[in-house]
Every structure is written in C-alpha cells, then in structure tokens.
Amino acid sequence: MPSLAGRIKTKVWTPIKQFVRDRILGDDGDDNLGGGDPNIWFKDLEKHAYGEVSFAVVQANLNMEDYSQVEIGKNATFVGVYDGHGGTDASNYVCHHIFPNFIDAANERGLIHSDVIETAIATTESGFLAYVRNMFQERPLLAAVGSCCLTGVIWGRRLVVGNLGDSRAIIGTITNRQRMSVGAEQITQDQNVSRDDVRRDVQRRNPNDPHILVRAQGVWRIRGIIQVSRTIGDACLKSAEFALGPQFPQFHLQPPLTQPALGDDPFLFQRDLNEADRFIVFASDGLWEHGIARRLLKKAMKVAAKKAKRRYKTLRTIPSGDRRRAIHDDITIIVVFIDHDLLDLNNGNIGDADQVSLRSLSDSTDPSLFREMQF
Q1: CA proximity to 148, closest of 93, 88, 230, 220
Q2: Are 125 and 232 in contact (CB under 8 A)?
Q3: How far apart are CA 71 and CA 57, in angstroms?
Q4: Tens digit of pLDDT for each residue in 50-82?
C-alpha cells in the first residue's frame, strides 16, 4: 500500500501539475516546442529539494542578453533571472557572481533572510561597477550596459525574493481543493516608469533634475534612455564618473548628472510558504501567464506572433537578430513546483535530488556552491 506521502503526492501534487499544463494554458497537444525553433532551449522537471523545477528560454537578440540559473542544495533552492540590456556584460557578470556572493552572505549570518539577498545584490553591483571602472578607458560603452536582477530562494518553508527592474515572480496557490482551482499572486513590484507610482518615486529621488523623465519613442524613459528605474550596472546613469561624451550621443547626458538617476536598492519579499502554495514562476519581460515553463514560453511566443501578424510556425523559422528582436525580446521562464509532502518528509535533506547548478542554454550540470554552505 502506498505511503501517506505517496498518496498525497498522487492526489494533490500530480493533479496540480496537470491542471497547470492543461487548464491554465490550454495545452493543444503540440509538444514540439524546441524541435521547430533553434532559438528555444528548455529543461523540464528537474528535481530540487522540495519538488521539481522547469526551465525554458527563447533567444531573440543576436547575442542572448538573458542569463539565468537554478542552484539546487540539500535544503535550499536558488533561482536567478538576469535580463540584460545594452549588451551581455552585466547579465553575464551577475550570473557568475551573485550566487557566490549569496553563499558568502548566508555563511556569515548562518541563515537565509532577505538581508542575505540584499547583501548579495549590493556586492554584485559594487563588483560590476568596479569592473566598468577598470575597463572604462578601453571600453567606455560598458557604462551603458546593465541588467535587471530577479532572485529567489526557498529554504525550508521560507521564501525570499529580491528584485531590481521589471522581471516578475508570481506564486500559484490552491484556492479550492475540491475543484482544484489555482490562483496567482504577483510577489514582486515592477520597477518601470510606465507605472505612475514608479515615476513618482523617480521624481522624489531626483527633485532637482527637470529632465529626469522624458517621453521618448512613445513611452516614459529616465533621461530619455531607459524604462527600468533600478538595475545592476548602467553606470553612466548612476555617477558622473562614468559620463559618456558627445561621441556617444545616445548616452551623452545634458545637463550632466548631479546624483544617480537609477537606483540599485532591490524590492524585497519574504514569507513562509503555506499549504496552499504550489508553484512559483520567475520570468523576464512581462510576457505573463502562469504554467510550466515550456508551455508558458510557447504561449508567449504565440502571442508575440499574433501581435506581429505572423503565424507561430513562421516565427519559429526567423533566426535571432534584428528581425526576431522586432517581434519579441529574449524570454526566460523558470517554474519551481512545491511539494509539501517533500517539505515535511525531507526535513532539510535533499532526498534523491543532487546538489547541482543549472544554467540557461547549457545541457551540462556542475556541482553547486550550495555544497559550501555551512549550515
């Protein structure tokens, strides 16, 4: 006879995943997402300490500006989505440095809390600005490269999320067990000046800059350049030290900065998971509905094709580059399923999952730095 844990997983966990696949996204039976489009990569249903994780990416830019990772530890799972702009340097740097900085901060405190993520983000920002400073004479346009940064960690029943920019995280919860109804709650705040409250915040932070918000290309932009108000990088919008001259007209600021136009302090969210919480979606870009990563990505691609008045099958044949970027941006989607049966059963042990590092666009797995966590 199956164990209680097995019966709970069969009756609750498996139907939730199927519900997300079939009813929320309306699965049409076409499972050939990756096969027809060389710009799509996915990794379905890898085990983590307290459930499974699904991971999907589509490339639009000639050089992929989204970087992302999932780190699986014996009693924690770390997720990072880094949506770059102006080039790949910032998002690539974040992907290689933020998790080691997170482990250092966690080991120093002996626990995982929102201030651990806050410290990891601050250390990563400081490190990237130091890199830009060292390279500024040789590569001045590094000062115009930046990245959004969405991070989250599950440690036991504690969920902690930190966010710079307009990538999003939502949490899916059971709202009616008998009908298997699932609701979704956004647990991050979009830091984008398309929002009235964000524009007010930017103006409050820059009361003496009459040019802080400019309408450009039909939308509000900070100094006419960027829509997101908090980032890693974008040094030319944070300090006059990194001012770019008139030979770079797109980034030549007049009048010059007297204080940072962009912030680097993250939005932080923390709470304990409850029995109704069943999955968390982390994704770049705001092409949002909820479901497992591969089918969610397919849904987003179909919406993008429809807006461009193209068939989805035609879109899949367009290579990465300017034509593809005109239709949709790089997209990253990571879905972490939560199995409360495993939360109780493992009690801080990873069970039969491995401590591994998963990176977007890579089919290989490496040992995770979670092995160096000292508690």
Answers
A1: 230
A2: yes
A3: 17
A4: 888 888 787 765 677 889 999 999 999 999 999
Q: 233 — phi, psi (to 5°)?
A: 90, -145
The stretch 301-316 carries a mean pLDDT of 49
CA atoms within 13 A on the CB side of 22: 8
Q: What pLDDT sits at residue 290?
A: 33
Q: Name the band, by pLDDT with cuts 50, 70 and 90, for residue 34.
A: very low
Query: Which residues, other chains included, contact 321 with Cβ-Cβ below 8 Å and sequence gap of 6+?
Result: 61, 62
Closest residue by Cα to residue 53 from 45, 61, 65 = 45
Q: What are the structure tokens assigned to 216, written together? A: 């450009």
Structural domains of the chain ordered from first start: 4-372 (3.60.40.10)
pLDDT on residue 281: 87
314-321 contacts at long range (C-beta below 8 A, 24 or more positions apart): 315/37, 316/36, 316/37, 316/40, 317/36, 317/37, 319/38, 319/39, 320/39, 320/59, 320/60, 320/61, 320/62, 320/64, 321/61, 321/62
Q: How many Å apart are CA 65 and CA 85, to the nearest integer?
A: 7
Distance CA 367, CA 103 (A): 14
Q: How far is CA 96 from CA 69, 128, 233, 315, 359, in A?
A: 9, 11, 15, 32, 10
Mean pLDDT, the chain, whole residue set: 80
74 vs 341: CA distance, rounded Å: 16
Structure confidence by residue, pLDDT tens digits, 246-256: 999 999 999 99
Q: Please tell me the predicted confidence (pLDDT) of residue 30.
A: 47
Instruction: Report the Cα–Cα distance between both ends of the chain, in Å, rounded.
Output: 36
> Is 58:301 a contact under the CB 8 Å cutoff?
yes
Of residues 316 and 160, the one with the higher pLDDT is 160
